[in-house]
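name: query_chain
kind: protein
chains: 1
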Amino acid sequence: MIDVGINVVNVRKRFGEHEVLRNISITAPPNSITCIVGPSGSGKSTLLRIIAGYLRPDSGRVLINGVDIYGDSRARDIINLVSYVPQDDLLVSGLTIRENLRLALRVQGLSNRVIEERIRWVSELLGIGHVLDKRPGQVSGGERRRVSIAIALARDHEFLIMDEPTNSLDRANVELLIGILKDEAGMGRVVLVATHDQYLARNSDRIYSIRAGELTNEF
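structure:
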């Protein structure tokens, strides 16, 4: 077991009578893209929510940089190092895209200057400058997806966790995202994605396959 990155050890999760995750153990080290693949309903999203600190497992441990995020007093500080992109784009509908970005960054206590610099940077990086003054309901699904990714990148955290990041993206934007994720990993970050997109999976460094809540393969 490594002391840096993410270590999931024997995690189980049940909803009622349905056991969603059965004894799952995975490792996501820095400087690489780790990918979890599997069909819809296999448990990928539940696992990511557990790793990101949003859902407590029934048993097992989740260690981030060696800290058990469900059993250590330092857990909150560690979880604050994680940027999580859920499968659904959780944007505030009454705010513009620019205001959504500002809101996400303001909670980090950043100065207005730094916030505007980061918004400008991610807007150029992901090609969303033309939608900044529109509301989420006025833009396409692919544009909303890029905004959610932009928010995670702008937070500039050590851990980047994404659930189905290529949803609604065309091939050109999938290529763009893969390049960005490789750059993020190259800067020493931990990149963990869950996806059904085989092209994204093939461009990852480590792949775990989950089916019906069980780990079926690692390669």
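note: Helices lie at 44-51, 75-79, 97-106, 112-126, 141-154, 171-186, 198-202.
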